[in-house]
Design brief:
With 445 residues, this protein is mostly helical. Helices cover 75% and strands 0% of the residues. α9 runs antiparallel to α15, α10 crosses α12 and α15 runs antiparallel to α16. It starts with a helix and ends with a helix.
Length: 445
């Protein structure tokens, strides 16, 4: 605060020293400068008396200009030419001052009183106006140092007095509490130093700042490297996360594709099995139809009527030749004898039970002549529409194994595989077989 007050006082002094405040014109200031430049009086320069008239001044100026003009003066060097030009310029200025009545009066006063002394603010203004740039800077710095130093001492005395008063108050309080004499240490404020002036502190601070530039640049580079490393690490983490997400998505797609291919393969295998079973069932049905046609064709040429003694003997031999367990035993025996399977099995049963015996040839022949032809057996399918032949029953069983129960068109496909039967017949036959199996299990339990 004290330093700022001193600065304000110095600024007030400078403002008071401004020439405008005293009323000086620029012409008067130029006159003062011209008086100091011309080594003699203006009248002596023009060879005139002090009370010369204006016309005499003009005549003297014209006469002097003819001899002092730079073009009339022979100059051996540039310095001489510059000096001649300077003298002619002073001559012109002097003539101008003497021609002006006001300036001439001011000049006459200067001849009597002289130029302003150091006691006059104009003296300092004129002196400062003639200073060079370096001189002005030096004076400003000197003035600033003086103001700062004086202000620092003022601050020092002010703080010292404040600390002394504080110590006295503390001392009084301590004496009241202890009822005795005590002394409190007075803290002294730091005294101003010449090195604390700004002309020294600023270069020191600037030097320290310049010396700290390499360290700051190194710290800046380290900070940039750290930031770049963090950014690179964050980028790597982001790339790893992106790769992990892509890998998870790829694995999910692969699993989905794998499940899809597995389902397609399962459907293809199931379709192939169904087609194979359909082909097998169709083949079986075709073969059964062929066997049925062959049996029908052979039945037309089969022997009918009672068995002769020779046929009974042949039947006995064939029963021994094809023992029990032989595949298609009775079909083979019936084929050997050119008889129907039902007739062969009936005669074999009678022979086994002893109900039929061999008789002499004549009696056998007579019996054969008297016995009427045996009636033709009626098939089960003709007697009942739900009855299935062996071929149809076998085709039904194959179709039930070939067509899965999960198929929505199962019974339609089964009906296609069983020739000569509709969907309702196949379902009724399946239910009848199931009911019969359940009744057998129930009776067995």
């Amino acid at each position: 605060m004290a330093a700022s007050r001193w600065v304000l006082v110095a600024l007030a002094v400078v403002c008071i020293s401004v020439p405008g405040a005293q009323g000086w014109t620029q012409a008067e200031l130029d006159l003062y400068d011209l008086v100091e430049e011309v080594p003699t009086t203006f009248y002596e320069l023009l060879d005139l008396e002090q009370d010369a008239s204006a016309s005499a001044i003009r005549k003297a100026f014209r006469a002097k200009s003819l001899t002092m003009h730079p073009d009339k003066v022979e100059s051996e060097s540039a310095e001489a030419a510059a000096e001649a030009e300077k003298r002619f310029r002073q001559l012109v200025s002097v003539a101008g001052v003497l021609k002006d009545s006001d300036l001439r009066k001011e000049y006459n006063r200067i001849l009597v009183e002289g130029l302003p002394s150091w006691r006059n603010p104009l003296y300092y203004y004129r002196a400062s106006a003639k200073l060079g740039l370096s001189q002005v800077i030096g004076l400003v710095l000197l003035f600033g140092c003086v103001v700062q130093y004086v202000g620092a001492w003022g601050t020092y005395f002010e703080r010292s007095m404040a600390l002394r008063e504080l110590a006295e108050r503390e001392n009084e309080r301590a004496n009241k509490r202890s009822k005795g004499k005590t002394s409190v240490v007075v803290h002294q404020a730091p005294k101003p130093r010449i090195l604390d002036l700004f002309v020294f502190s600023i270069p020191v601070a600037l030097f320290r700042s310049l010396a700290a530039i390499p360290t700051q640049m190194k710290q800046h580079r380290e900070e940039q490297q750290r930031v770049q490393a963090e950014q690179l690490e964050a980028q790597q983490e982001a790339e790893e996360e992106e790769e992990a997400r892509e890998e998870a998505a790829r694995e999910a797609r692969e699993k989905k594709e794998k499940r899809k291919r597995a389902k397609q393969e399962e459907a293809r295998v199931r379709e192939e099995k169904y087609r194979e079973s359909l082909r097998a069932s169709t083949l079986l049905s075709v073969q059964a139809g062929k066997r049925t046609k062959a049996a029908s064709a052979s039945n037309a040429s089969l022997l009918t009527g009672p068995f002769s003694e020779a046929e009974l003997r042949t039947l006995t031999q064939l029963v021994t030749k094809f023992p029990s367990g032989t595949s298609d035993r009775w079909q083979k025996i019936a084929g050997e004898m050119n008889r129907k399977v039902a007739d062969v099995t009936s005669q074999a049963a009678q022979l086994k039970s002893g109900a039929l015996r061999f008789a002499p040839s004549s009696s056998v022949a007579g019996t054969a002549a008297e016995t009427p032809p045996a009636p033709v057996a009626v098939t089960a399918s003709a007697a009942s529409p739900e009855a299935f032949t062996q071929e149809q029953q076998r085709a039904l069983e194959d179709a039930l194994r070939a067509v899965p129960s999960s198929d929505s068109e199962r019974w339609d496909k089964i009906a296609q595989l069983v020739k000569g039967k509709s969907k309702a017949d196949c379902i009724a036959r399946y239910k009848a077989i199931v009911a019969k199996l359940k009744s057998k299990r129930a009776s067995a339990n």
